[in-house]
Amino acid sequence: ELKVEQNPLFLSMQEGKNYTIYCNYSTTSDRLYWYRQDPGKSLESLFVLLSNGAVKQEGRLMASLDTKARLSTLHITAAVHDLSATYFCAVVGDSSYKLIFGSGTRLLVRP
Amino acid sequence: SAVISQKPSRDICQRGTSLTIQCQVDSQVTMMFWYRQQPGQSLTLIATANQGSEATYESGFVIDKFPISRPNLTFSTLTVSNMSPEDSSIYLCSVVTGEQFFGPGTRLTVL
Description:
By secondary structure, chain A is mostly beta strands. Chain A has strands at 4-7, 10-14, 19-25, 32-37, 43-49, 55-58, 61-66, 71-76, 85-92, 99-101, 105-110. Chain A contains no helices and 11 strands.
């Protein structure tokens, strides 16, 4: 059974600092997503990672995937308040496209 | 990408009643899913809505409690039956068009 572990669960950081969110999964998968969720809102797709060594960047966020280690990271560079949200990683469990979600990381960026 | 709408956006219901949630997509999609997000929690897949056949339910979810219809490739409904306060959640539909996208969600409160 595929399990997805995400850490930390909560992250409070100052503006301008860097930090990394980690996502580990237990079995082979060929697709990993990162989503952002603002309070009371739905999920916004940030990145989809398809292959080992994949790296994608958008603004201050960069995601990478190591399929051998079954690990993905979401790196935040020089955080700003607008990045405050909950971030989820999700892994496709099998060829049916069903997503298994991590527990989420609630990010608070303080001035 | 896909434009997904859900109705209602929110509702407050009495214990023992049922609510049907609608999901409409602006293009034909093969893969459509229903997820639940309980307060402060991550997302859990309820079922895969199959066009022309019965939905496929995940462990812990049953058809009598969460009947699903999928009459065509752009529309699906999820009914939450005989509701209890434990059913208070956000219910989201999701589709796959290259990537996996989520609807805006239906926030359900059961009193």
